[in-house]
Amino acid sequence: MSLRLARPLALLALLAGAASSMAAEVGWQRPFSDVAALSVRAPDRVIAYGPAASQFGELWLPPGREGAAPVVVLVHGGCWLAEYGIAHIRPLAASLAQAGFAIWALEYRRVGEAGGGWPGTFRDVAAGIDHLAQLDEPRLDVSRVVLAGHSAGGHLALWAASRDRLSPDSTLHMEPEIRPNGVLGLAAITDLVAYASDDNSCARVTPRLLGGTPFERPERYEQASPAALGSRTNTILLQGEADAIVPPAQAEALPGARVVLLPEAGHFDLIHPDTPAFERIRDLLEASLNDAP
């Protein structure tokens, strides 16, 4: 092949590869590694809400916005395990801030670290949400708050939205200081009893989170499972039908919730800001903020 012909062919191959890459970025079925590899700007502030290393939140503010912004409290997933921290939710947090929301992304103690599991994980999420009421940040409109979370973080967001239904003598009871307008679960785990009987690697963490199986600790499952506590009026579940980690049946296990199915979406598509799911998330958050707490 001549050098004259080789150069145009090489250029065409490069352009074809770039086009293929761009198509892949906006398609479905993104693996966790794609999410973890995304570059992202640093949060505007990192604020501790407790003394433990994992008790902090990251605040992203919408650039160029005048006045106070509505707040999305974002809870990351990762099977409730210490191995998976806040880093993988940062691309979604930064992209939602770019779309006009203030994002309060929570880190919390998880299974495998001191204080994680029952009851610390739950109490951390509740304390982190309520810490919004104490922040000295005029650019936050804490009268307009939506809770959102992905996977195990979706479970915790749904639980937090209904924690006011806990008995005052519950170990998890903390009187809420923030009353959210709504809650959005992204591939959220809603029924811990059913999930504990599943056989994927994430489901097998459920007894570790609660210190036993549903047969050994039924009272804990009653206090910790959104399916047992019930849903708020404005509860939305966004679920991929191709999700192999949190099956679509979980979205149907929470009575009263509005379920939005994405036929081609897998588990991590819902936190990758370059998939078609992002526009749905943005629109659902905006709709939730228009409802009264």
Helical percent range?
A: 25-40%
Q: How many individual helices?
A: 10
Global outline: globular
**Strands, total number:** 8
Q: State the strand order across the main sheet.
A: 1-2-4-3-5-6-7-8
Which percent band covers the strand fraction? 15-25%
Tell me the Rg in angstroms: 20 Å
Sheet with the most strands, sense and barrel status:
8 strands, mixed
Unreliable residue stretches: 1-25
Mean pLDDT reading? 91
Structural class determined from secondary elements:
alpha/beta
Structure overview:
The protein is an alpha/beta fold and 293 residues long. It has ten helices and eight strands. The protein has helices at residues 3-25, 32-36, 90-98, 120-130, 152-161, 192-196, 206-210, 218-224, 226-229, 277-289; strands at residues 45-48, 56-60, 69-75, 102-106, 140-150, 182-186, 235-240, 258-262. Strands 1-2-4-3-5-6-7-8 form an eight-stranded mixed sheet, sandwiched between helices. α4 (120-130) crosses α5. Mean pLDDT is 91; it is low at 1-25.
Which key features would you list for this structure?
8-stranded mixed sheet, alpha/beta, 8 strands, globular
Topology at a glance:
Elements (H helix, E strand, L loop, with lengths): L2 H23 L6 H5 L8 E4 L7 E5 L8 E7 L14 H9 L3 E5 L13 H11 L9 E11 L1 H10 L20 E5 L5 H5 L9 H5 L7 H7 L1 H4 L5 E6 L17 E5 L14 H13 L4
Parallel strand pairs: 3-4, 3-5, 5-6, 6-7, 7-8
Antiparallel strand pairs: 1-2, 2-4
